[in-house]
Amino acid sequence: MNTAQKTLLKLPSDQDSSGRTLGDEEIKFVADAIKSGTLTSTKGTFTKQFEQQFAQHLGMQHGYACSSGTAALHTAYAAIDPEPGDEFITTSITDMGALTPILYQSAIPVFADVDPKSLNVTAETIEKVISPRTKAIVVTHLFGCPANMNEIMDLARSKNIPVIEDCAQAFLAEHQNKKIGTIGDIGCFSLQQGKHITTGEGGIVVSNDEHYARRMFLYINKAWGYGDQNPDHYFAALNYRMNDITGAVALAQLQKLEPSVRNRVKHANRLTKMLKGIAGIQTPTPLTGDIHSYWKYCLNVDSNVINGGADGLAKELREHYGIFSAPRYIRKPAFECEIFQKRRTFGNSQFPFTEARPEALNYDAENFAGTYAGLAGILVLPWNEAYTDEHLNYLADAIQESVAKLS
Fold first, then answer.
1. How far apart, in whole angstroms, are the C-alpha atoms of residue 324 and residue 321?
2. CATH architecture classification, 258-330+371-406
3. Domain 24-256, classified CATH 3.80.30.20, yes or no
C-alpha cells in the first residue's frame, strides 16, 4: 500500500450506522410499541419477550432486563446482599461502572492482578487477595476473551464464594464449550452503543439460582413484589427497569446477535492469520478450545522491537492510515482514579472505605505487575461486525507497513 497514491479507507464505526446492524426490524418493533401506547415494561410485551428469549438463548432459567450495563452489575451485587465492609474481588482493568455499584452496596472493591497477555484475572491472582471478608468474585471477560472459568470456579466453590460474570464485552463467547455468563452464579451483559448488540444504553442479568433471581427481579423494581399475593417494598432498592421502547430495540437486535458475533470471529481469525509472524506484535491468544467473541481486536506490542511501542504504532496508524486505535485501553488501572486514591464517595464520610481492612486498600504497584505490563503493551484496534475483506486487507497492510517502519 502506497499511502501517497492510494485513498485512505474509512473503517466502519460502532458509533454510527456504518458499524451497527440497526435497521427496519428495530424501526418496526419500536413503531409497534409506540402504537400500543404502553411504554412501561411492567405492562408492555417487548421487554418481557427479550428477557425470555435472551435467557433461553443462553440456556438459563431467569433473565431480567435493566437500564444499563452498570445497572445490571449493581443488580447482581445487590442480589449478593453484602454487609458494610464486605469485599468484592474484581479486576484492576475495568470500567468504573463495574466498581462504583460495589461502593453503593457499602462493600469494598478489592483488586486482583491480571494476566499481562489477556488482561483477565486468573484463579492465581484472585486467590492472593481472598480474605474472610470476601463476599463475591467478579470476573470480567475483557474484550470478549474468556477468563479461565474452570479454574476460577474450582477456587470459588472450594471457598463457597459466589461468582458474578461481567460479560459486557463477551456476548456468545465460550469457555470449554460453556457459554460465558452461564458458568458463574450470575451473568451480567451490557447493551451500550458499542457492544455486540445495542440499544444505546441497556443491560440484562441472567441466573439459574432461584434466590439470586428473585433478589434481582425485586431490585430492578424498587423491591416491589409484582405478582405476589400481598406485594410490598421488601428492602431498599432502585428503579432499574428497561422501558418497552428500548425492549423493542433489544428484541430486534437479539435476532441479529449470532450472525454479528459470527462475522466478528470469522474476520478476527482471518486477521490473525494475516498478521502471523510479524516481529514485535502478538495477536489474541484465547485458551485452546475457547471462543473469543471479539468486542475488540487487540495486539500486544513489544516496545523492545517496535519504536514507541503501542503508542508509536497507534500514532503511525492514525497519521498515515486514518486508523484510530487505543493504546493502553484505559489510561491507568482503576485503583489509581481519585475515587479510590482520595476515597471520594458520600459527602466527606469516605464511607464505605472507613469499614475496610488496610490490606484491602493496598494499591502498591508491586502487587500489580501484570496490570502495568499488560496496559503498557496493549493496542486496541477498532472492531465491529460490519468489516469486509477490503477492511481487513487495509488494516493488515497498515499494521504490517507501520511495524516495518518502526522496527
1. 9
2. Alpha-Beta Complex (3.90)
3. no
